[in-house]
# Entry
Amino acid sequence: MIDSLQFRGSVAVVTGAAAGIGFACCETLADLGAKIVAIDKNPTFGRELRKTTKGNVWPDRYYIADASLESDVSRVASRVAKEYGEIVALVNVAGIAGNQLISSMDTDFWNRVIANSLTSVFLMSREFLPLLKDGEGSIVSVSSTYAFSSRANKAAYSAAKAGIVGFTKTLAIEASKMGIRANAVCPGPVISPRRIENSASGADNPEEAAARTLLGRFAEADEIANLVAFLASRAASYMTGSAVVIDGGQLTHIGAVT
Ligand SMILES: NC(=O)c1ccc[n+]([C@@H]2O[C@H](COP(=O)([O-])OP(=O)(O)OC[C@H]3O[C@@H](n4cnc5c(N)ncnc54)[C@H](O)[C@@H]3O)[C@@H](O)[C@H]2O)c1
# Structure
């Protein structure tokens, strides 16, 4: 088990790498010996090298690119193909949220959330599938508990995250012919720069979100990264087409936790 969690210098491509869950996925995969190709549209992340707790240095490459834009994704995929030839893991973390009621939602908002949170997963999977190692490659996409359960204001986000689950099932079927696995991860509330900003602006209510979990707290980003790394590794060799919930028990109950 421990051995099959090691990446031994093989390449993992991670979107949304500049912050939150994506950043934690890079650190965890790098700690397990993967070479990290980090992608984010945020140019302020910079090209500085980071060190994991084991002293492993990442990223191996950093691309400023928008995963929802076909031209950016194909540019990065051809650079990665040229530089590495083959990768073992694609981790789709990039996504955005946002709150609007359906009755007053503007179409631009809908299109923006779907493009960043769902179309990005399609484009990255299509372009990087040919680079994934036959018989070992793995795609992990970050969905949400909002794929299964929602609230007012969250129609676009819920649709995108449920879309990832449906997309992943078809991807798993089609990629199985190449021995490649595809799974989705569905986190509940996770501490991240976005959620900290949202709490400060009043768009998020962290106490209420924490109280809806059985564990009474948000996840740390590296708790999600541990699951992502497991699914990306050979340790999860019999897992494909799954949507794995990691939510501190948020979806387990109906009504208040007493
Ligand atoms: N934080 C949570 O509570 C939570 C819960 C469930 C699921 N998620 C999902 O996990 C993922 C990461 O969330 P987070 O809270 O760490 O977010 P975050 O906003 O803190 O970080 C997201 C990163 O993705 C990048 N990004 C967004 N769209 C992009 C695009 N089109 N191309 C390239 N980069 C892009 C951003 O620049 C940012 O660096 C998202 O898909 C989110 O929906 C988050």
Observations:
- Strands lie at 11-15, 35-40, 50-51, 57-58, 61-64, 89-92, 138-142, 181-187, 243-246.
